[in-house]
User: Which sequence fits this backbone?
């Protein structure tokens, strides 16, 4: 409907309609990625980029570049994702003469996403460099805020560090970073649940099934839809259940049953 509206509008109204279309496709792609529908997610992400460019808004273009980076990462195209994140940040830096706080956030979030993609290529140097860029932006902000639905800030950067440590297989470092996060300062429950899922995975890598299950249940209490409706979360439940020692197995089985997961 938004695409059709764009065909009948002119001037600022048309640009605004394209911006709304970019946002709608961005949200759609995010949901599809969580559901692991990579094909449709890529299509939605691509349309978000097209609409963003049609809106002529550097902010929307930067925002849509994030979802393209996500789609590339989920598709296993890690080098391309790293390049896309870097290119988006460089393009925005060149285009913005008087950047707003939201513009700066897009720049730094691109750096954070690039760091995660770089971790999947095995490049520790690039990962550290990009995470430091994101951390500097977090320090400048001073607090976590949900500008452009990013939940970005100092604690969010720590969440990215947790995820990156996991990707390198370093469960101890992931848990250390997770313990530094002030969960109450994260502005959206989805972000809190994602951090707790990563922390649960780290404890499972450490063979601390009791803690992995405890943290997973905490995530479910904060954002139940992120556990019950997310394939990756249900796989984590199965992994805990499949490898749990006798002391934890009954509790794990009971919790899995509430989610419809059967051993």
Assistant:
């Amino acid at each position: 409907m938004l695409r059709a509206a764009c065909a009948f509008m002119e001037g600022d109204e048309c640009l605004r309609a394209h911006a709304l279309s970019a946002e709608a496709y961005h949200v759609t792609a995010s949901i599809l990625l969580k559901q692991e529908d990579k094909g449709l997610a890529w299509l939605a992400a691509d349309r978000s980029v097209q609409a963003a460019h049609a809106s002529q808004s550097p902010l929307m273009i930067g925002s849509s570049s994030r979802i393209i980076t996500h789609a590339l990462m989920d598709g296993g195209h890690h080098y391309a994702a790293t390049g896309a994140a870097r290119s988006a940040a460089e393009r925005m830096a060149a285009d913005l003469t008087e950047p707003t706080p939201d513009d700066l956030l897009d720049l730094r979030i691109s750096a954070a996403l690039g760091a995660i993609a770089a971790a999947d290529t095995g490049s520790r140097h690039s990962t550290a460099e990009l995470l430091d860029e994101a951390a500097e932006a977090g320090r400048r902000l001073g607090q976590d805020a949900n500008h452009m639905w990013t939940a970005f800030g100092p604690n969010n950067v720590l969440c990215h560090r947790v995820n990156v440590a996991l990707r390198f297989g370093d469960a101890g470092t992931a848990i250390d970073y997770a313990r530094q996060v002030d969960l109450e300062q994260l502005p959206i429950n989805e972000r809190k649940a994602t951090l707790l899922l990563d922390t649960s995975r780290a404890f499972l890598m450490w063979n601390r099934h009791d803690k992995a299950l405890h943290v997973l249940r905490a995530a479910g209490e904060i954002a139940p839809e992120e556990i019950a409706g997310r394939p990756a979360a249900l796989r984590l439940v199965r992994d805990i259940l499949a490898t749990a020692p006798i002391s934890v197995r009954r509790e794990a089985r009971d919790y899995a049953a509430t989610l419809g997961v059967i051993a």
